[in-house]
Structures are given as structure tokens and as C-alpha cells.
Design goal:
By secondary structure, this protein is an alpha/beta fold. It has helices spanning 3-13, 19-36, 44-48, 53-71, 117-136, 182-188; strands spanning 77-78, 86-90, 93-100, 157-163, 190-197, 204-211, 214-217, 220-224, 238-242, 256-260, 277-283, 289-295. It has an 8-stranded mixed beta sheet with strand order 1-2-3-4-9-10-11-12. Strands 5-6 form a two-stranded antiparallel sheet.
Amino acid sequence: MDEHTIRDILLRRHPGAGNSKSVRDEIADACTTFVNSGLADANFITELCSDSEAKYWSHVSEALLAAHLRNVGLNPTSSRGGGPDFLVVMNGKRIWIEVVCPTPTGIPLNSGVAFPHNQILLRQTSTVKEKAEKLIGSSDGNVKGYVDKGVVALDDAYVIAVNGRQLRGLFPILKGISGFPFAMEAVFAVGPRQISVNRETLKPIDSGRQRRPLISRPQRAPVPAYTFLDDKSKPISAIWAVDLEGTSALGNIEPMAVIHNPNALTRIPTGFLPAHDEYVATPDGSENFIVSRIDGRLRLSQ
């Protein structure tokens, strides 16, 4: 692969010197390594230089995530043959990673009005549902998933990597109105913070977060937001939520979090994927889970 071809493509998207060149070089290095490693599909270069924002960010997301995997000593390979985007093998265990960069359909970006928490959450939730169906098939049985096709085994791990870069304005954002990542709101039915107040004394008596199993949509059926609480989603091991665009080359923090499925048939260990934060849910002895945040790791040396 001619590295200059990729750099010429990116120069049109990120023209200029200084910070633009730093970001351009970061993306170019990731894309060049991605192609030379054999991970890229046959349309990678063509779609990278197209006018489609969706195709561009889809492929850049794959390249940047592959680079982050290598940073923690993992060696992603191509599934070859219609499977998920990446395959990582650890101690004989197969871990599949499906990458998606959802488009901002229905999101009023940079509108100057209130931050569109609900619209972003809807896109995140719809994206998780779509990628879950690629694994387990559609609920009506009309679409077969990777499991039914024999590509992914039930004892394999399966991770959905969601890059939210296209769902926001200028600055990276990973967390929703609950204070947890949008991806966590999408799979654990977590809603906004709330305070209960005594009607007579007007004093707060309790605080926490609302339970929000459904997300409303104007003139359409609500969207379920409890993927990890649904038995049908047990083949999904985790959501890898990120906001990547190559600006880490400028010293910016590009947030990454892993949300583990407590009901997964096959779990991935904490510290496996690169992330700033990881969220692990454990049963409290009843029907509830206690969610804990732990520090993640970003590089092999950490």
C-alpha cells in the first residue's frame, strides 16, 4: 500500500499545518498500518476518499480502534468471510469485535439549543440493537446472525465497539444525562438523576437515578434500553464505548469506556480492552445489580 495515497486523501479532509497536520498524521499512520496489516476490506481506500461522512468515519474508526488494541499488546486479525470486524485470540479464547460509528440521524448538532441527550441516546441504543442482531439474529427470525451462521460460537466473546464521533459537535463526549456513558444508559435502563422530596417538609429524603427501560420517540414506538438485562443478549460480552477522531495527537483526551454484561455467556476480563473507565455490574443478592466503576488501562506499560 502506498502511504502517500492515504496522506493525499487525508490532506483534502484535514488541510493545513500545525494541529491539522498532527491529526492528519495520526489518522494516516493508523490507516496505513490498518491496510498493511490485512485488516482493511477491498473498499477501504475508495470509501476513505469518498464524500460520504459515514463511510469515512466508519473506516477511520476501525483503523484507530485497531491502533488502540495494538497499544495494549493485542493483535487484531480479520475475520475473513463475513464475520465481525476484528478477531483477537487470548489464551485460546476467541474474542470478536464489531465496530460501528453511528450517523447523527435526528440529532440537531450545533443548534445552540439544549444538548440533545435523548436523541444521542436513541442513536446509541438503536446502534447497539442493530449490532446485537448481527450476532443473535432479528427477533422475528427473518435475519440470521453470526451465531446461526456458525461464524461466532456461543462460547466466543463478542464486543460491540461504538465510536460516538459523529453524534456530537466539536468536543468529545461519552457520558449522558445520568453521568454514566450513553452506552451504559442504552443497556442498563439507567435514566437521569432524581431526588425524592418530602411533600410536607420539602426536605430531600432520597436520591439516585431513574429507571428508564424505554426511550420515547415522537410518533413512533419507544426503544428498549435494557439490552444487558435481556436473556437474549447473553452472547454479548461488552460494549466498548469510545469517542475517537485522532486528536489524541494534540494531547487531547479521547474518552473510552468498557461496559461489561453481567449476564454474558462469555465475559472478557477487566483491563483487556484499552479504556479510561470500566463498568462492572454485580448482583446484590436480590434482583438488582450494583454497578462499580474501575480504572481502565490505555497502554501495555500501564
